[in-house]
Amino acid sequence: MLARTADMVAEAEAGRLDATAERAREALAAMRALLDTVREGEAERELRPQPTLQALDLLARQCRATGREVRIRLTDRVPDHLPTAVDLAAYHAAETLLATGDDQPAVLELDTAEDTLTITATGIAPAAHPAVRERLAARLAVLEGTLSTGPADTVRLRLPLTAGGGKERER
């Protein structure tokens, strides 16, 4: 967050007001996310609805606010409403993948085919670490999902579900 603020000041001093405004929005989004986690007590978190894939835009914005470029692409085959367990597991897997990283740009692509939701993440080199793989594998195992890594900085998660149909959209 401090790096974002310093970037904002540098952009303002250079007279680049559009960039300054963008940096300010990023810093505020990061600050909001930080304050939300500090403000909420444990009891409130337990009662709060769990995030689903519908919240991927917010997750991506929070990552961008920390300085990491994140793109999320969904094909039209990904239905608007997934089975609840799959929706929750997919969101938390995406959250885990994006939390593992450095500042390397990341792309999450979601698609369904043959009754399977596939999440392909690139730019996630730390996801190949054993502790991260264990967390992801445990989350997927409950739904009989699978995890594979490679090539390079790519992680692929597969969760069984009933598929829909179409082309790509970006968030």
Overview of the structural elements:
A 6-stranded mixed beta sheet has the order 4-5-3-2-1-6, covered by helices on one side. The protein has 6 helices and 6 strands; from the N terminus they run H-H-H-H-E-H-E-E-H-E-E-E. The protein is elongated and about 55 Å long. By secondary structure, the chain is of the alpha+beta class.
Write the layout of secondary structure elements.
Blueprint: H1 2-13, H2 17-39, H3 42-47, H4 56-65, E1 70-75, H5 84-99, E2 106-113, E3 116-122, H6 130-141, E4 146-149, E5 154-160, E6 168-170
- Overall shape: it is elongated
Tell me the strand percentage band: 15-25%
H/E element sequence: HHHHEHEEHEEE
The tally of strands reads 6
User: Portion of residues in helices?
Assistant: 40-55%
Structural class: alpha+beta
What is the number of helices? 6
Rg calc: 17 Å
Low-confidence stretches: 163-169
Mean pLDDT: 80
Strand order in space, largest sheet: 4-5-3-2-1-6
Strand count, sense and barrel status of the largest sheet are: 6 strands, mixed
Span between N and C termini? 23 Å
Which structural traits does this protein have?
six-stranded mixed beta sheet, 6 strands, alpha+beta, disordered C terminus, 171 residues
